[in-house]
Amino acid sequence: MTSHFPSLCSSRPPLAMDDLSLEKIEISGATLASLIQRASSSPSDVDGLIFGQIHRIVSSNLSDDPPADSLASSSSSDQIVATVTSFVCSGKTVSFYDPLGRVDSRRIDSLRVDSPDRLIGWFSARRKTANRPSMRELAVASSLSSQFHLPVEDLKNPKLTNMASCVFFLLTTPSSDQCIHTHEYRGYQFRSSKQRLEPRSVGIVNIGPAFRGHYGSFRPKSGFPPLICELDSSAMIVDRDEGSLGAKKQAVKDQKEIDALAEGLQVGDLKRLVGAEAANNTGGIEDMYEKMLAKVQSLASDVEKSSDRVFQQEKHNRKLRNRIARMGR
Amino acid sequence: MAFEGFPPLIADQLHYLLNHSPDSIKIENVWSGNKINPKILDRFTLVIPYCLDNIKWDVIYNSEYSIDAPDFVFGPDDEDFVPCSSTIVPDDDDDQISSLKKALSEWDNKDSKRLHVLIQGFRDQYVAYQRRRVGQVDDDRVKFEISTVLTRKGIEMQMVSGIDKPEEVKFAVPLVMDMNINKMMVVCPWKHQQKIYLQVVYPIVRKIESTPSAPRLKLVSSSELKALFSVDDVKLPPWMNEMCLAEYLPHLEETLERQIQEAVSAIDSRRSFIEALTLFLGRPLEADPTFCRQATFLTASGQFTFMVHFFFSTQFPKQQPTLVLQSCQHLNQSSVPVKSNLFTEYPWSPRWEVGRMAERVCDFLTDEAVNFKKYCNEVVLQH
């Protein structure tokens, strides 16, 4: 299970590789639902990669007395939390590792495509089995942890600490058919010092005031594109005066994309919807909406056709696989 | 066994495993992980005998990708059992671990022996794993027993612990290994090698005590062996204070060897007794040819025809056979042939010649036939 591969995920070598313990694993309700949906809709067992971030949260135990040793006292109350933001499902088992559980980093790269998120671990979903890690799952978690690392995000103390991609999610279904209890999931952390998968509590983060605290340490991963409106109003000019040539070029490019969507209708034309001329111009807007709807409809039928083709191809693949499995009999 | 639901190549491996394993492995549960066709089975629980108990391992294939190697889930108490990791046991077992790794990493689904090779290898690793666990127990007596008894082959150990269970160390010690019981039989009726084990259970007491309490001892054999020899009849020698297994076992084995020899020769004495009976009662209707534990004869007293069933204990001729008479002419109200009660007391001496034994039994039968006929007539008259 030992690896001789260098760290492939992080561009910087790990500075501190303590076997830190996670306090818990957080996942948004939507991501978890999507994960369960993917597992339950697949024809058989599947595995895949999970992405996210790991950050250090300092719990607030502030006091008026100056601490004697500020570093020691602050680190003692730190909590390290892993947050799952997305995942990718391989659609089969033994996808990015061999039957012994040795992870192949090239297969990981081809599976994650160019996901910008950081790899924090992996998941395994299997039906009608015990909800504890299998022999191979332990080996994969160990191999993955030894090959992939990511930095621990720490706002207060930005010194770089790395942590292994040690998160493991196990999704199972109960071995007897039940009406109510149909799915089980558990979160684990692989601890390299103990060579063991330790269960971790899974916190489900939802939107709402009660969960606001969870977003405090979060940095947005995908910024909105800079949508700069080309309005002739002078009030807007002040805001966008500064900016380099590159930013301007980017803005022009974005504008072109928006214009293509708007079917030649300029944003400035919207002005004409107000006032005396409005009645004459609504036709143009309606025209644009109709064109857009037609586009959406053709897109929908394209999607329908292509998913049918995907389904047919999958059926064909299954037949071929079954034929291969029967060969030699 | 329901193998129909498994894809053919998985069924082949399962067949091979169940037919070739030295321990009688069983399948307990079968499931399907396939959503499209839930009739295709691809996962099951194996019940594997270990240390006079069973361990359960789940084997998970993927029917959609049945050319892939299976995965395994071990027992809930064995989360540290990692049979394919050479980091934990760096020493002697390296050859086996590397061959196990090879069997998995170069998996060939057409090789029907593969699953058998893996399970057998895992079981060997499990023996070593439990031995390591027991070796880590902080108990001087257990440490001493391990160091003195380990030269014996085939000892299996198990650590028993749980939240609501007292901590215990279990040993399963195979006894009289030099004696091949299967070969002592003229015609061996058993598929598996018959073995006798001594189960030794050491309670682990955390308190410091002057003398540790005696272990719990029990002889265990397969139920098949009971036809020849019942271990429950063996009186275990007492366990003296401060005794250890290395002292205890030789005496026990000596007794056991003698008793097994006697049990095997008892078959011959039962056979010759049945043969002696044929002089008086004619050829038996039915007789157990392997262990000679049963024989049935047809006989008559005047017009009254009836059957005599002989049941022999393993202690024959010390214990006389039990007799039951069954009429061929009388049916009771539920249309079942009328039977007598068991006869266990009649003139008998284990010191008689077999001819004399047969003669005396037949004398007794001649007398008893009259009573039995009377009894049968009464039963018939009642309804």
Automatic annotation (TrEMBL), chain A:
GO CC list: nucleus
Highest rank taxon of the organism: Eukaryota
Example GO molecular function: polyubiquitin modification-dependent protein binding
Pfam family, one: MPN_2A_DUB_like
CDD domains, per database record: Abraxas_plant
Name of the molecule in the record: Uncharacterized protein
Lineage per the UniProt record: Eukaryota, Viridiplantae, Streptophyta, Embryophyta, Tracheophyta
Automatic annotation (TrEMBL), chain B:
Single GO cellular component term: BRISC complex
Cellular compartments annotated: Cytoplasm; Nucleus
Gene Ontology terms describing biological process: cell division; chromatin organization; double-strand break repair
One Pfam family matching this protein: BRE
Keywords: Apoptosis, Cell cycle, Cell division, Chromatin regulator, Cytoplasm, DNA damage, DNA repair, Mitosis, Nucleus, Repeat, Ubl conjugation pathway
Top-level taxon: Eukaryota
Family recorded in the similarity comment: Belongs to the BABAM2 family.
PANTHER family in the record: BRISC AND BRCA1-A COMPLEX MEMBER 2
Protein name, per record: BRISC and BRCA1-A complex member 2
The organism's taxonomic lineage, starting at the top: Eukaryota, Viridiplantae, Streptophyta, Embryophyta, Tracheophyta
